Amino acid sequence: MQRALFPALFAAGVTFLLTCLVIGVKLEQVGSELTVTGADPATWGWIATAVVIVFLVQLFQSPLGTLRRRLPAIEAHGLLPGHRLREQLRPWLIALVIVGLCVWPFMVSRGAVDLATLTLIYVMLGLGLNIVVGFAGLLDLGYVAFYAVGAYTYALLSEYFGLSFWVCLPLAGLLAATFGCILGFPVLRLRGDYLAIVTLGFGEIIRILLNNWTNVTGGPNGIGGIDKPTLFGLEFSRRASDGGETFHQYFGIEYVSSHKVIFLYLVAVLLVLLTLYVINRVQRMPIGRAWEALREDEIACRSLGLNPTVIKLSAFTMGAAFAGFAGCFFAARQGFISPESFTFIESAIILAIVVLGGMGSQLGIIMAAIAMTILPELAREFQEYRMLMFGGVMVLMMLWRPQGLLPMKRPHLELKNP
Amino acid sequence: MSETSLYVLQQLINGLTIGSTYALIAIGYTMVYGIIGMINFAHGEVYMIGSYTTFIAIIGLLTLGVSSLPIVLLLALITAIVIASTYGYAIERVAYRPLRGGPRLIPLITAIGMSIFLQNYIRLAQGSRDMAMPALVTGGIQFGDPAVFEVSISWMQMIIWCVTLVSMTALALFISRSRLGRACRACAQDLKMTNLLGIDTNRIIALTFIIGAALAAVAGVLLSLYYGTINPYIGFMAGLKAFTAAVLGGIGSIPGAMLGGLILGVTEALTAAFFPSEYKDVVAFGLLVLILLFRPTGLLGKPEVEKV
Questions:
Q1: Overall pTM > 0.90
Q2: Which fold has domain B3-294?
């Protein structure tokens, strides 16, 4: 206890220095005059509490540590049914989830469906980035650039050439993949952390270009009035545009505005399922195995005759393609895009989803995307603290569970102790 | 002299001013990278916190009735250095130390999380609006023909040059002459061996974070006085620019960071002179990409050998 006293006092002092000026004093701009006021007593109360808590935790660190070690570790995997049974149930479970996803929107409010669509976009982005970060182990901080490429591809093609969503979707993916390839080719030779910064720089360059190339992209004002997707040429609007036909006219039913929202949602479900299908297939192909092998040990891979550049490039390109699809869909859903939607923070949110879900684990990422988009909507007061929490969660996850909440499990055999 | 050359001269002066502050921030990146090989992504936020502390200290002192400008500036500098170094130390202690020795990407992700966290922490505590302060140090000297183009150097720019020069010299002396500086150099060469020789490497690593943060705080004081406005998001761009400067000079090399900062500042200013100023960021990042592609070791860096 005596020995812990000095470090505890030191930690309390550091905490006080961290909080006293930044939280305890408030800068305020009144007209052109800046003023400094002390914060209200409640804030100072919080600061004092924080200092005392840090002091006590540091003081009793060693007894707390032994207590924690005595607690049994929780094993989540033991709670699930056996491996055999799970394998048998798997197809049924998947079918059940898909049916549930398709039936669910008809029973709930329009806002909920809209939120679900947004969540699905993040699921797609998370799954795409997972290829790059989770499988191949390349930290891409400019992922949002490919998302932007996809979104602007659709917006520009539909504005200048009148192409429809379904034509633009593959084009957007293709163009984003091309961008990924062009960018990836030179930079993938770099070491991991340099790669992260270069991709970050690239993301910023794309955003600045979109912002300043005013006569094509509309600059900060963005592009509005983007067409919504159609169902085999049937539009989801009250009145058809010239030469078109609307969904409700064709089927002879009453016009309901929520049909459009549900249709968009179903398109998103389709895209996510497609993404999942493709990724699951590719993961089992030689290239997918090579990604993971490369992540684990690059030098060993090279000595086995794998070409790291080609393998990394394929992961990068594929991740970019999915971001392109997601971007195209995003533009169609919003009907309006501007460079504001493609800032670094967006990249960081997608990265946080991948990190929280457990790098490499697809189920984990889907769960994380749902949590990250729905939690702030449930509690509006949360909204203010959303980014603070994202940052905090990223740090805490790396400290406590770098493998994520639901880490990926690969098929393996274990020798039981005799 | 012709108008163009005077105009270029003016841009050079502005570029050197910004460049020297980039160099100050870049030293934090380069020292940390040199010792533990990680990119401290949250370093830009330490600069931002330094700027906020400067504003708070200056306005607070003026409100308290301290009227002598040099004393106000000196006290603000000291406050900013103390608070920012505490942040630098705390970030290392809480977020990076437990992760040392793990895979390379994990500390980088932590650092990004830390950066987002600090940015929003300041945003929540102080509001997201721009804060503007009237210039405290005004005036300067002008030369050149007023009919053609007048080149001006403000006192503030001179203060920036002097303070940067003094801090750099102090750092160089500290690294090359003092015992702790020698320990720092030893850590950069071989961390494990230094530890075996009885030097508390944890303490040295914490020290590099503190020095880096203190220099970032100096940059925060200088730039917040120079621009006169701050907001919680300035750390991101400044951090990226400083990182570019560190890479340009060769990451891990302290003279390299100084040189890189100056080159970057001048390049940016010259770009802004002849192209729309929005493109100066594009040039900075383009420069970063080009260096990493063609000379990843930077101008003064040593090549890194990959060991199995």
A1: no
A2: ABC transporter involved in vitamin B12 uptake, BtuC (1.10.3470)
